[in-house]
Specification:
Structural class of chain A: mainly alpha
Distance between the termini of chain B: 26 Å
Structural class of chain B: mainly alpha
Strand content of chain A: under 5%
Oligomer: heterodimer
Number of helices of chain A: 3
Chain lengths: 61, 324
């Protein structure tokens, strides 16, 4: 909830602007973890779709 | 819900820099799909077009564009690591050295961007101009012109005399020259078949690629892969796997350092990652059907078109024309 409040403050521009950005720890964590998880999920999804679309003989081999 | 509030970091930096952004979820989805289609069709160039287009179309500050693209590239790197089962051909020693050089380059690039982000606006023809916009647009335009011209020339040469031998000759020449440079310590890379090469050349290649990634947010592969093949003399199979493997660490470090600087908009990165992947998958069958000189000429034409759009935006900012 605190993280959402932090994002809300950013949108409104009510975070103090003193020449430096103050990152929330959750912001850093999510920026590193979310793309990796999404990349893994997309790779899995692509493999499943290719397996489904592959010709039947090729799939059995 | 307001569409712009979906992109809090874009909003934040636009507010700090006194800019007005026109970013919408639908617009970013369409751009992501378009860039994905291009990347799948041409094989390269996705990131190369994305950096200027995100700024031109939506007026997103360049620092957010670069940071979010690095975050998106981290997703692509982890996806590629799974897709191509990298462990088979990777030269781990080379990948480790490239990752060290690359991380240093990314850090350097991110710090340069940080300097530009807080730099005072320059005045041009009596109008204040954002220095970050001017420098990064110029560099992007130069990169696009160079790549567009190189590809167009290669197509013409290949058309005239079937192109056999030209690239191989250049590769042998550059590789043999660089491998004779003797700046200690010298190392050998047996997996890549390189007997003797200066450690500084390997680190330098990693650093240069990392600098481009950290500063311009362009994909490292379109420079990193040719550098491994033509400069270091790696076999293509090893070069592809090693480049993909090391890019996982370089983009990971890039996402980490840009996070601390507040340059990553996660929503933008997620939408771009998903849409470019979908676009690439759709265009891959087309790319197999249509290939050859016409496709490469189309790539060169698109590169020139993006440069033209950058010029138009610059002219509109200094008040020469009223378009954007």
């Amino acid at each position: 909830m605190r993280f959402l409040a932090y994002l809300n403050q950013l949108v409104r521009g009510s975070v103090s602007i003193d020449g430096r950005f103050h990152p929330h720890p959750m912001y850093i964590f999510m920026n590193l973890v979310v793309p990796v998880i999404l990349g893994v999920l997309l790779a899995g999804g692509i493999k499943i779709v290719h397996w489904i679309l592959a010709p039947h003989e090729k799939r059995n081999n | 819900m307001d569409s712009t509030s979906l992109f809090p970091i874009v909003q934040y930096w636009a507010h700090v820099q006194g800019m007005i952004t026109h970013v919408t979820l639908t617009g970013v989805i369409f751009l992501g799909l378009f860039i994905g289609l291009l990347a799948g069709f041409f094989g390269i160039g996705g990131q190369l077009f994305m950096t200027p287009l995100l700024n031109i179309l939506f007026n997103i500050p360049y620092n957010v564009v670069v940071g979010s693209e690095l975050c998106q590239m981290l997703g692509h790197s982890s996806m590629n690591a799974l897709k191509y089962r990298l462990s088979r051909n990777v030269d781990y020693k080379l990948a480790f050295l490239l990752a060290i050089g690359g991380a240093a380059g990314v850090e350097g690039g991110a710090r340069l961007l940080e300097l530009l982000k807080f730099a005072k606006a320059a005045t041009f023809l009596g109008r204040p101009l954002d220095l970050m916009f001017v420098i990064i647009s110029l560099l992007n335009a130069a990169l696009l012109l160079w790549i567009g011209t190189t590809i167009y020339r290669e197509t013409r040469v290949a058309h005239r005399r079937s192109g056999v031998g030209t690239i191989a000759t250049v590769q042998m020449d550059v590789t043999s020259r660089l491998q004779t440079i003797c700046i200690r310590p010298m190392i050998s890379l047996p997996v890549s078949g390189i007997e003797n090469v200066s450690l500084w050349i390997v680190l330098g290649v990693g650093f240069s690629v990392g600098l481009l990634v950290g500063f311009l947010g362009v994909g490292g592969s379109f420079i990193g892969l040719p550098a491994l093949v033509y400069i270091l003399g790696c076999p293509m199979g090893v070069a592809i796997s090693t480049d993909l493997f090391q890019s996982l660490f370089v983009t990971g470090y890039g996402a980490y350092t840009h996070s601390f600087k507040g340059n990553i908009d996660l929503t933008l990165a997620i939408v771009l990652l998903t849409c470019t992947t979908l676009g690439t998958q759709v265009s891959l069958p087309l790319a197999r059907r249509y290939s050859g000189s016409k496709v490469r000429q189309a790539f060169a034409f698109l590169a020139y078109l993006v440069v033209l759009l950058l010029i138009i935006k610059f002219c509109s900012l200094i008040g020469m024309i009223r378009v954007l």
